[in-house]
Amino acid sequence: MTLVYDQLAARNFRLEWEGPGIARQQIPVEALLSAEGAAAPQVAVRGTAPGDGTGSVTVSVDARTHRVEKTVLFLGDLQLAESAGTELKYQGPLPSGANTLWSRVTYDKNHTADSDHLTLNVTGKPVDAAWTVRNVGDQRASAGLWQTGSDAFRFFGNGMHIVTKRITGDFTATCRIDDYNGAHGEPVNRRAWVGISARENGEKLNWEWGSNFHLVQTAADGLRPSADNSDLGAGRISSYALPEGHPWLRIVRQGNVWTAWSSTDGKQWELGGYQFKKARADMDVGLFFSALPQDARAHYHASVSHFSIVPGVAPEPAPPLPVAAQHTDGDRLTGVVMARSDARVVVVRSSAAGLIRTTDGGKTWAPANGTLTGSDLAARSVAIHPTNPLIMVRAGGRGKGGALWKTTDGGKAWKRLTFEGDFDGSGPSALCGEIIAFDLRDPRTIYVGCESAGFFKSTDEGVKWSKLGLTGERITAVTVWAWEHFYPAVAKGKTQLAVTTCSDRWMTFLGRGKPAVTTPATTARSYISNDNVATLTLLDERADTGFFNVAFDKATQTVREFSYATAHGYQGNSGGFMSLFPDRKNLEWLRPFTALATAARGEEKFGRFLTQALDPATPGRLSLSTHWGYDWSWLPTQGTAPKGGLIAACADVHQGEQWWFIYTDGLYSSKDGGVTLSKVETR
Questions:
Q1: What sign has the CA pseudo-torsion 420, 422, 425, 429?
Q2: Residue 556 pLDDT
Q3: d(CA 259, CA 443)
Q4: Do residues 200 and 209 touch, judged by C-beta distance below 8 A?
Q5: For residue 4, what pLDDT is reported?
Q6: DSSP 483-541
Q7: Over the stretch 67-92, which tens digit does the pLDDT of each residue have?
Q8: Helix, strand, coil % over all residues of the chain, rounded to 5
Q9: What is the DSSP letter of 428?
Q10: Measured between alpha carbons, how far is residue 523 from residues 103, 433, 504, 613 in Å?
């Protein structure tokens, strides 16, 4: 029996010596070889190269009365094949050009004998001129990339290599992985891979390719799309693997939306990756082979068939629409906020009953509406002063018009502020994030976002307002960065915030009908500020989903990377692109999210981040991250399990133990970071 690509390196040791007055130095392996004895086994290597990118090699051993335990064939320093007897045959792919082959025989348990070297010159049929073949890594890499059929290719060797075509616009690229080394535990680099890729600059080397997207079958880490975070030049692949046993791969471009799909049969396709990444219209699209020599003890090879690139988006793997939420209509609780200065003070907002407030951690509750009635009780948002919980600002209304109010006595009396804006506290916007925020560096400054009237700022506690733009855009969340205490250098002495918007199209997926106010905007946008909120700067813009809320994870030391609750699920922006996190990252996806809540855990590096879908496929669990909002785990609910989905959440921002949740079936609290929930009656 011949075993191809065994697990022992040809020379996997290094010897050194030193002595008095003699510097430490390596002992060359050649110095350890001894001349062949007359009675030692004779090893002969013979081979031919038929001109098709392969070689046929035979090793014959004359044992000469010795017991031969193993015969190994090497290509250079790495194993190519092994047998347990005196005969070994290898028939398979080899790198292009001159190949140095030799054999080593192990006999009588601890003796070896080597053959002479055989040089085999390998050639093959050139790849069709319609394709461009490039070595895009180490130019010294030894490899062969051969076309074995009109839609089939074979690779052998090391380095990074592509075979591509220049494609303009949308496309669907498909292939089948027929074979790859590593599938049975062969000791190649675990991140060696074969798959499909698209890149802006295919002629450049070593990841200097501009915007790119790929789906690759790795040798030992599964099937993976492009990295779903900034990656910082590490693995270049996603943090999660797609299902095993899916040899069919497909990537689809639709504008700046990139999706990765896999299949068992090439007919039924399963979505595995969804990213938004800006890229040029024309891209180099094709196969991508990568086999770095680090940690490898065997040569890498892979075979691909059924490879095609078709213009446009194939109907089977079109990016899916999210599942519209249910059980979210009618009069209900819609949001919850906690005072930063006193965790006992919590305010719940509703679509018809205004605000409800507790000052004793939920033991007792009382309305906080003063004399407000009618549409003013459709509370769109509320913000609590960061140092004085008696001061609050609220927005109310049922679409067109609306009003902004302020209290200084905890909600007993409210004064209407002079403000020209519009708010919808009863329609779908009511389920979105808070759109009022106090400046944490100077609480005299207040920020307000409207349904269509724009984004406003007051620097005198709400007396006068200046407009910073965004007219015609529905603002769904205004979140001030809360972590300057931990990262003062990041803040640069300025207030940092994020503002999100959503077009009309995606609001209906929240399950509360169409918005009362129509807006001309056709994209969802996020904005930041570089000048202490004197102006806003566009950061992300998308037409393929809607933004419902935004949050900053405590451990992320940047104000330009944050987390979105979107129509399709939880998404993170990182390194200039956005990734929709799938169920394989322990988050529901292709379902609307509105709730995002983050908290510190004292002075620990990492905080606590909780979220869940608005209408989850599996109720009774949260998604928890304690690492950058990037690594997630399921958090099964103990205590009283909610029957519905999560609308909103908040926490003691300093310690992260006390949490409040608005579910579709009511208000819940937790004293242990969301592990154990108790339902709370506010009447």
A1: negative
A2: 86
A3: 43
A4: yes
A5: 37
A6: -TTT-HHHHTTS--EEEEEE-HHHHGGGSS-S-SS-----SEEEEE-SSSSSS-EEEEE
A7: 999 999 999 988 888 899 899 999 98
A8: 5, 45, 50
A9: G
A10: 64, 18, 9, 22
Closest CA to 500 of 593, 421, 590: 593
End-to-end CA distance of the chain: 78
How far CA 586 is from CA of 242, 370, 569, 583, 637, in Å, comes to 13, 43, 12, 5, 14
Average pLDDT over residues 629-642: 95
Q: What is the mean pLDDT of the chain?
A: 93
Residue 204 identity: K
Q: Which pLDDT band holds residue 27 (cuts at 50, 70, 90)?
A: confident
Residue 594's contacts (CB-CB under 8 Å, 6 or more residues apart) are 431, 432, 433, 510, 548, 549, 565, 614, 646, 647, 648
Instruction: Name the DSSP letter for residue 64.
Output: T
175-208 per-position pLDDT tens digit: 999 999 999 988 899 999 999 999 999 999 988 9
The answer to whether 135 touches 41, Cβ cutoff 8 Å, is no
Longest dimension (CA), the chain: 110
pTM of the entire predicted model:
0.89
C-beta of residue 490 within 8 angstroms of C-beta of residue 484:
yes
- Average pLDDT for residues 112-136, to the nearest whole number? 93
pLDDT of residue 18: 84
Collapse the DSSP code of 583 into the 3-class scheme (helix H, G, I; strand E, B; otherwise coil) and give the result: helix
Alpha helix segments (H runs only) across 75-214: none
Residues 6+ apart with CB under 8 A from 64: 39, 40, 41, 42
Buried b (16+ CB within 10 A) or exposed e, 436-445: bbbbbeeeeb
**197/202 Cα distance (integer angstroms):** 10
CA distances from 446 to 90, 399, 478 (A): 75, 22, 11
Contact 548, 435 (CB under 8 A): no
CA nearest neighbour of 279 among 255, 260, 312: 255
* Pair type for strands 257-263 and 118-122: unpaired
